[in-house]
Design goal:
The complex is a heterodimer of chains A (about 600) and B (about 575). With about 600 residues, chain A is an alpha/beta fold. In chain A, about 60% of the residues lie in helices and about 10% in strands. In chain A, the strands form 3 sheets. In chain A, strands 6-9-10-3-11-12 form a 6-stranded mixed beta sheet, with helices on both faces. Chain B has about 575 residues and is of the alpha/beta class. In chain B, helix 9 packs antiparallel against helix 10. The two termini of chain B are about 60 Å apart. The chains are: A alpha/beta (about 600), B alpha/beta (about 575). Chains A and B meet through helix 2, helix 3, helix 5, helix 7 and helix 8 of A and helix 3, helix 4, helix 6, helix 7 and helix 8 of B. Chain A: Its main location: membrane. Chain A: It is a multi-pass membrane protein.
């Protein structure tokens, strides 16, 4: 839908289309075949008037006409039509298959390319825009490889063939007909600029309508509460009217343009009858030749019309190609090393070190400063601090969603930048605050569609985190379809699924961003039990929002404005009497009764 | 649709008539050429005759272009007028529907209707109608001409294959339509997956699942390719059969017409004219197939639009509304409330009373039902009868305009339109003076920042303008509500993104501005509601605690623990 409201960028050019040309390369044999089929189809088209001419001159208008020749001609005629139709049928299939295969490859590349990007890319690119790139821009570009290509070949070839046929028939009359060519060019030239301007104006105004509608439908509640329906309707009317006017103006011009062409065509026929008629009168040509000329002149205009209509296709393909190109041009900022280090799961200890790490999403705005800590294999550490203190950034760096500006992050003595991202993400697991669920079954959501994780393993994982009962209660159990991103599950249930997912994937190191969302007490109980199961036997970093969760952590880091201001165990920090102690004192009254909160324990 | 057509019937009659006449002019073309051939055959041809015929041809050509062009132009304009009116009505219709309706639908879906369905109908109504009229009357005119001037026998015999054309179209058309619907479904499947996958990109990356996602994506893309190819197979067949039938006709004309010519039953001119006639109608017949498809699609679009239009606003004025001048007393006595599409109660046993002029604070966790509760007051969602009262009247018995006129609302996200700040703040009052707007902005602690924008109040917000911060948006929305100066003001967690000092200033402004007027404040930060006459603590849809700040603290319940927790966090920040 939104491809239609392309706001044209000045950089949109033929260049961007050419850059996508390599995608067509594997199909060059197909394109050649299409050309051959087009030649056959066009050949039969040009042949048909000629056959009629032969019939008229040889069989019908002679002194003793003969039926036999007529039968032969008719048979040839039918034969040529059949060949033409069959050629056309296969041409459509071959061409469309190539077109579809090309978009398929572009789509796959584009999708893989997008998924390969680092997190910074997704911070700046709206999802809707990327979806449009993948779904409709590719569709638009494929028209270049199908409709546009076909028109150039078929219509271009038609023109050439018609011209050749005319010269074959009679050079003098054919040369007269050639006067048409500069005329046609002149007319096209006169109209082209205006046509494009009006076309784009209509597009822009339509996209204004779209933007207005999208916004107002989203804010319909505000309009209704403030009782401004009439006013917004008036606003809409202004845009709607502007679009109608542009639309009508565009249409008018295109009708005038097309009718001018037709007028020229009709005038050309009259002229041919005049010139050809005189020639017949002087016996320089036969009548059948004149007949063929009339047919050819009429045929002559079809390809020209069709080519001019491809103009819009070319325009929109260029814009779409440009947008695709801009996505494809972005290189991920986080890249794998040329020769990633090899890690074996057996030898993996799971020691995590941050060595003097500084980081900012923007260079001039540091979020983390000189972060330095070590987590020994199997330990659990808690990170606490106010919103914006940098807790989540610590997590994003360890997963290499971003690279630090300074310092090193090291797992088992190896800089994580020496690992491939696939390996790193196998080693380091992450449970986020928001649980993402895919449309699919619960089982698929736990195994995140990985075939190598069996149903038994899925059930086992769910059992371990205490999700099995909840899932079994659902009507279809593990095969229950989650729709609308898990709208049919409660917050707590979704968290349990996320835990089960991690257990199924079994990473050595786990980062847990504790959910801030408040849960009802029953599920809170379930979730905290799940948490324990998940952290069991793993090096675990917990970003805590409730102090109770990390009371028995091996190490607690207190972050403030991007720095570690205090570190130690719960007891030592309390004894220190600093920020942590302060915090703890003030949160003395727990929101939930103490008993229901299960502090995470070392096992 | 019918209304539109009947109100424009004369305009349509004129343009269609012009197309019809143009076709009767057009069919003179082969006739002239046939006569010309006959003159030539009978050796009566002279320079003057040649000139005469070519001049006549020119006249026919020019006349046809003018008449047809006129009809085409008029129809196109009418179609676009229709498109315009349909969109206008659609928007006004949507404005009348309640939030419950929009909750069920995606905006993308609605936009699709407003853009593509409307356009499809218009295309059928202008372009399609042109071609259909053109084709039908060209056919009629041709038949008349060939019957009269050439040979009824030849016409009947060679037109036989063409009889199958409409039959084929009717049989084959739906197959193409089905196939393309399935292809379309595959396309939106892929788009959905893309969106889902990109939304979950953190999860995908953190689990090194990119290749699995790519694989899932690939499967969707493959389905598209398969289904698209099926569409192309069907339509390639369609596009082949039609010209094929036409050509069979032509061959019969060639053979049988030739035979008639040889045996002297018709003149060579008649034969020539007849072949030209056939050539002339093949293209319109072919187009008729496309038009048929177009009409099929348009009728589907029209059906979808009719479904949209048939949706009745579910929150409407009562039949005999109570006329009151609302003072602002609010009483809620709600046994339970469930969303129309919900499967559990969103609120249960919530009762409270606020006298006009009181300030009510509402606190509770996300999902506790705070927003739901305040949404019942302006009937964004309809409360059950006899459960929500303003000034002692059930809100459902009041005139909707009166009720909403009396309520100013600041939504959670501070929704703004992408116009100027001036228009946003003055949204409730179209002719608000500059002074009023500035005062509202000042009260919302927004004016200082507005003054710093180069364009001041005329700064455009959003997409093509300055993008405001979350706090600025909230304050603009608060200023908008202040300007409305209604007896009841609702702030739905509208201070979440402003810093503490600003919050204090705004709360102070509220206390001053809202003296004697009812104010309902939902807040996460408890400092915002500390001074409320009454604080409601909601949890899981029920009212757990109720009282003043001091009363609740003394009660040492949930509210008290929330206060303690927040003070702790603030110390950290």
């Amino acid at each position: 839908m939104s491809t239609n409201d392309v706001t044209k960028r000045p950089s949109a050019s033929f260049q961007s289309l050419l850059r996508l040309l390599p995608y067509a390369k594997p199909f060059r044999m197909h394109f050649i075949l299409v050309m051959v089929l087009v030649v056959i189809f066009n050949g039969t088209n040009v042949l048909q008037p000629w056959l009629v001419k032969v019939a008229i001159d040889r069989d019908l208008s002679t002194a003793n006409p003969q039926i036999h020749g007529l039968v032969v001609i008719s048979a040839l005629y039918v034969g040529s039509v059949v060949i033409g139709v069959v050629a056309n049928y296969f041409q459509i299939l071959v061409l469309q298959f190539s077109g579809q295969s090309i978009i398929r490859t572009i789509r796959l590349d584009l999708f893989r390319h997008i998924e390969r990007q680092s997190m910074g890319f997704f911070d700046t690119n709206a999802i809707g825009r990327l979806v449009t790139n993948v779904s409709s821009d590719t569709e638009t570009v494929s028209q270049f490889f199908t409709n546009f290509f076909l028109s150039m070949i078929r219509d271009g070839l038609s023109l050439v063939m018609i011209v050749v046929a005319m010269f074959e028939l009679n050079v003098r009359i054919a040369s007269y007909a050639m006067v048409l060519i500069p005329l046609l060019f002149l007319i096209s030239l006169l109209f082209r600029k205006q046509l494009r301007q009006r076309y784009q104006r209509t597009r822009t105004r339509l996209s204004n309508i779209v933007a207005f509608l999208a916004e107002n439908l989203a804010g319909i509640r505000i309009i209704q509460i403030f009782h401004q329906e009439k006013r917004q309707a008036r606003h809409f009317n202004v845009l709607n009217t502007a679009h109608r006017e542009a639309n009508v103006a565009e249409y008018q011009l295109s009708v005038i343009f097309n009718r001018t062409f037709e007028l020229l065509g009709n005038a050309a026929v009259a002229a041919i009858v005049w010139i050809g008629g005189i020639a017949v009168l002087h016996h320089t040509i036969l009548f059948g030749t004149l007949y063929a000329f009339i047919s050819y002149i009429r045929q002559f205009f079809q390809p020209i019309n069709s080519i001019t209509q491809q103009w819009n296709t070319l325009q929109s393909s260029m814009v779409a190609a440009d947008r695709i190109g801009q996505v494809l041009m972005v290189e991920p900022t986080v890249v794998d090393p040329p020769q990633p280090a090899v890690v074996s799961d057996e030898e993996l200890e799971g020691q995590v070190e941050f060595r003097n790490v500084s980081f900012g999403y923007k260079a001039d705005r540091p979020v983390l400063r000189h972060i330095d800590f070590t987590v020994r294999p199997g330990q659990l550490i808690g990170v606490v601090g106010a919103t914006g203190a940098g807790k989540s950034s610590v997590m994003s760096l360890l997963t290499r969603f971003y690279d630090p500006n300074e310092g090193q992050i090291v797992i088992d003595g190896m800089d994580i930048r020496r690992l491939s991202q696939v390996d790193l993400h196998r080693i380091v697991g992450l449970i986020q605050q928001d649980v993402y669920l895919f449309s699919g079954t619960i089982a698929d959501n736990i195994r995140i569609f990985r075939q190598e994780i069996s149903d038994d393993e899925v059930v086992e994982a769910a059992r371990m985190v205490g999700a099995h009962e909840m899932i079994s209660r659902l009507p279809q159990g593990y095969q229950t379809m989650l729709y609308g991103k898990g709208a049919n599950l409660s917050m707590g249930e979704r968290q349990l699924i996320a835990f089960a997912r991690i257990v199924a994937l079994n990473p050595r190191i786990l980062i847990l961003d504790e959910a801030t969302a408040n849960l009802d007490s029953q599920t809170e109980e379930l979730v905290s039990q799940g948490l324990q199961a998940v952290s069991h036997n793993r090096t675990t970093l917990v970003i805590a929002h409730r102090l109770a969760t990390i009371r028995s952590a091996d190490l607690i880091l207190v972050l403030d404005k991007g720095r570690i201001v205090e570190r130690g165990t719960h007891e030592s920090l309390l004894a220190l009497g600093g920020l942590y102690a302060d915090l703890h004192a003030k949160s003395g009254i727990e929101y939930k009764p103490e008993e229901t909160v299960h502090p995470m324990r070392r096992s | 649709m019918r209304n539109f057509l009947s109100s424009r019937k004369w305009a349509y009659a004129l343009s269609l008539l012009s197309i019809v006449i143009s076709e009767f002019v057009m069919v003179q073309f082969p006739n002239l050429l046939g006569n010309f051939t006959n003159t030539l055959q009978t050796h009566h041809l002279s320079r003057a005759v040649v000139l005469h015929y070519s001049f006549l041809l020119l006249v026919v050509g020019v006349l046809y272009v003018l008449l047809y062009g006129f009809g085409q132009l008029r129809n196109g304009q009418l179609g676009r007028q229709f498109e315009y009116e349909l969109r206008r009505r659609l928007f006004e219709h949507w404005e009348s529907l309640s939030t419950a309706y929009f909750r069920k639908r995606s905006i993308g879906d609605l936009l699709n209707h407003a853009l593509n369905d409307v356009r499809t109908v218009r295309e059928a109504l202008s372009g399609g109608l042109n071609i259909l009229t053109n084709a039908l009357f060209l056919l009629t005119a041709t038949l008349i001409m060939t019957f009269r001037t050439v040979s009824p026998k030849l016409t009947l015999v060679s037109m036989i294959p063409l009889v199958f054309l409409p039959l084929f179209v009717i049989w084959w058309g739906p197959r193409i339509r089905n196939a393309s619907r399935r292809a379309q479904e595959a396309l939106s499947d892929m788009a959905d997956l893309t969106e889902e996958s990109i939304s979950a990109i953190r999860l995908v990356k953190a689990t090194a699942n990119e290749h699995i996602e790519a694989h899932r994506f690939e499967r969707r893309v493959d389905v598209i390719v398969r289904r698209q190819m099926s569409v192309f197979r069907q339509s390639a067949m369609f596009q082949s059969i039609i010209p094929f039938l036409g050509s069979i006709s032509f061959s019969i004309a060639l053979l049988y017409g030739g035979y008639l010519t040889i045996t002297g039953q018709i003149h060579l001119g008649g034969f020539v004219a007849f072949t030209l006639y056939l050539a002339m109608i093949i293209q319109p017949l072919q187009q008729m197939g496309f038009v048929f498809n177009q009409f099929q699609r348009a009728s589907a679009s029209l059906a979808r639009l009719e479904v949209l239009f048939s949706e009745m606003p579910d929150i409407t004025n009562p039949e005999n509304p109570v006329e009151v001048d609302i003072q602002g007393a609010v009483t809620v006595s709600l046994p339970k409330f469930r969303y129309p599409d919900g499967d559990r109660d969103a609120l249960a046993n919530v009762s409270f009373t606020a006298a006009a002029g009181e300030t009510i604070g509402i606190v509770g966790r996300t999902g506790a039902g705070k927003t739901t509760l305040v949404n019942l007051l302006p009937r964004i969602f309809d409360p059950p009868a006899g459960s929500v009262f303003v000034d002692g009247h059930d809100v459902r018995t009041l005139r909707l305009e009166t009720l909403r006129e009396a309520i100013a609302y600041v939504p959670q996200d501070g929704f703004l339109f992408s116009t100027t700040i001036r228009e946003n703040i003055g949204f409730s009052k179209e002719n608000a003076t500059e002074e009023e707007i500035i005062r509202a902005a000042q009260s919302a602690s927004f004016w200082n920042e507005i003054e710093e924008f180069p364009e001041g109040l005329d700064t455009v917000v959003g997409e093509r303008g300055v993008s405001l911060s979350g706090g600025q948006k909230q304050r603009a929305a608060i200023a908008r509500a202040f300007l409305k100066d209604a007896p009841i003001l609702i702030l739905d967690d509208s201070l979440s993104a402003v810093d503490m000092n600003t919050e204090k200033r705004i709360i102070a402004a509220i206390r001053e501005l809202r003296q004697g007027k009812t104010t309902i404040i939902i807040a996460h930060r408890l400092s915002a509601i500390r001074h409320a006459d009454q604080i409601l603590v909601l949890d899981d849809g029920t009212l757990l605690e109720q009282g003043t700040h001091e009363e609740l603290l003394a009660h040492s319940g949930i509210y008290a623990s929330m206060v303690a927790l927040q003070e702790g966090e603030e110390a950290l920040a």
